[in-house]
Amino acid sequence: MSFKCPLCMRIFSQRFAYTQHAQKCLKNVEVEVEEDDDNNDSEKYSSEMDTRSNLSSEYENDKVEVDDDNDVQNMSFDSIGSAISEMSLEDSNFENILDSSEEPEIFEEPKNLNTKTCTEFPNDAYKDLMLLVTKYKINNKGGNEIIRFFNKHSNLTESPLPKNIEQGRAFMNNMKFSNLEFSKVLITKHEDKDYFLYYQNLIQCIKNILTVPDITQNFALSYENYEYNRESIYSEQNTGKWWKTTQESLPTGSKLLSIILYSDATTTDTLGKSQLHPIYITLGNIPIWRRNKQDAKQLLGYLPILEAANKDLVRDTFHKSLRHLLEPIILLKDELMMKCVNILKMIHKDLFAHNFFWDLPNINIYLATVPDRMHHLDLGLFRYQIIFTCDILKSQHVNGNKLVEEVDRRLAAIPRFPGIKIFSNGLQSIARLTASEYRSLMKVMIFVIDNLYDENNNEVDNFVNNDDLTKLYEYWNEMYILSRYEEFSESDLEKFNDAIHRWAWMFVKAFKFVSPSNLKLPKLHSWVYHIIDSIRSYGAINGYTTETYESLHKYFVKIPYQISNKKDVEPQLLQTIKRQAISIRMSQHSVNPAKTPRTCKFSARLFEFSLQDANTFFNEKKDSVDNKMQTGFARFISCLDSYLDLLDGFTIIVWFSDIAISMDSEESNDYISDKGLCYGQALLLAEVLTDPPLNLALIQWYDFKSKRNPYLYGCPHLKLIELYNFVAIESIHGVVHIVP
After folding, report:
1. Segment Disordered: which positions (predicted)?
2. pLDDT tens digits for 446-466?
3. Which of 251, 297, 382, 714 has the fewest CB atoms within 10 Å of its CB?
């Protein structure tokens, strides 16, 4: 591999020689990045080399501009909500981070280089190339091949593309947008190591959010007294009691801007050896459905992770970082037309150390730290419930290990269904399960536990009978479903509170003898005693769910980390994020053509035959198809006859599928239904080539197993019966998961 200086075009065969050359070349020469004569440049810069010893030391100097404190003080809220029409064009250092995971290369430009900056690409071809490379994460080698291919076949006298991808990345790094600039500040020193906070200005982040298209639609600026049947309804944050109380305390004409911060450390690799601690920001004024989308959030920065056993020092570093991040609000609090008085922190760490929130007016940080469903339930209490269940099965029963093996067998036997994780290896990997996988477990564990073991015939102490354990999972499901309500009336809150305490009572009864901490679980206390008050204060739990924040880790941490050189990664991540943001910004101008709606169309054909030859065809194929299709063949003619009342002149195209069906409203009155739905198993999908064609599904129906008790644990309890019909595919309500 060779290394070419992007300024003087001199080529070096070794990285070390190139690195030495680049430092002096970039430090002492003011030049625009353009094509120069190779020989002249080589002579010009041949004597300007230093003795830097290794590549990693390139990152010792600041890679991200550090704003002067006065810059923060001089920013105001005057332009919040308006489009950012002018971008600042300032000199800055920048670096080129290659996307090759095998051998990343680094190009660094020092601060004193007067390189020409801009906000647009030189031409459309240049722009399209760099957007393509950035979007699909093409490394330098692949990108350079694209450039060579284009130049070879374009027959242009002058190429519109950069000389190489390295130069293109450097150009993007040097593009100036005021809303894409990060800074860094030294927070602390520990054992001769500097710990920096990398961040965006908080006010600029708010402006960035407000410039997202459609984000200010239905933007809440005042309290809404939402009632139904004379009951208060809590949904959006501005329907909660906190908003009402705070709004009443504001000066006349002032408006409330609710800031929500989310911070959680995440691993950068699969082994978990390296971590980063991003912090994100969004606004409580945005409706929940819109706020839970990725573009309604901004990366505020990366908090330093202190490598120290001293917890007080770690907490002090954390709070120093927060003080610096929130300093723009503190400095401008007397000038703001929109008074920022609430800081909701969803941080899953211990915050009960001395912290600067105590010094801020109108903020009770303990009340403002709202419980998060994903960490409290999915990854918290339900995880405990699974672990304690396994402990009970192992310790309280003679055949404990066999019972755990039976749980694994039942989990593996559950039919596959789109969106549900099938645990083919049982619960062996429970320590590594994601929140989504725990939610899959919630849907099926009650059927796994049901009728798992007998009564206490061996007189085991502290025995937990199977019925109680099954009820525990039933109560959990009831509570969890209620937690996902988009709005709560006072009567809903009473029902929710009852469900929480009913589950908690059974949880304590079942597990108090197997919990190592005697169930002294902070998440249990927070959920049981504080979630109802939190809803009354700040609205529905869905407004504070962190699923979308967790997905941001992939975009802002994991993917940029993978294409870095794994050393001093924060500056590299920020440059990668900047290029991604530029790519998204530039791509928004492209209009995607609207998709033309299409009628039902089958994607794959298995068989085609004339109806008059159907019986002969079925006999020929019966030995080469599975049992369900054989049943479909056997019932095909009679069911089609019932549906059409004639049999001549049709050609049938047959497919196979395995789905569940619902009936239309008129026919459902003739059957026992589940709120107007009936269930069946599709044996065949068929198209009758009439004019227009008929799209049909051959169904074998389910019926309720018991008319007296049609539901089991809140689910329809069904049995498959010998009743078959063709129905129009358009009458299918959707796919359901039927667990044996």
Report:
1. 33-61
2. 999 999 988 777 777 888 999
3. 251
